[in-house]
User: What shape does this take?
Amino acid sequence: MTAETLNVKGMSCGHCVQAVEGSVGGLRGVSNVKVHLDQGKVDVEYDKEVTSHEDIVEAIDDQGYDVEE
Ligand SMILES: [Cu+2]
Assistant: This one.
């Protein structure tokens, strides 16, 4: 299992939390996702055999938020 913390810009309210947690949490291979709204951070745990960092970044981007690489 891989654990990462991503810095995500643009999340401002509970709707944003649900959008990010819902989209990332819906990816195959993601076992845990937690948004820290006050810090602009997203903790994610996933199986590298099933999904990738790029897939997660894309899922967040699709919701309209920017991941700072
Ligand atoms: Cu919001």
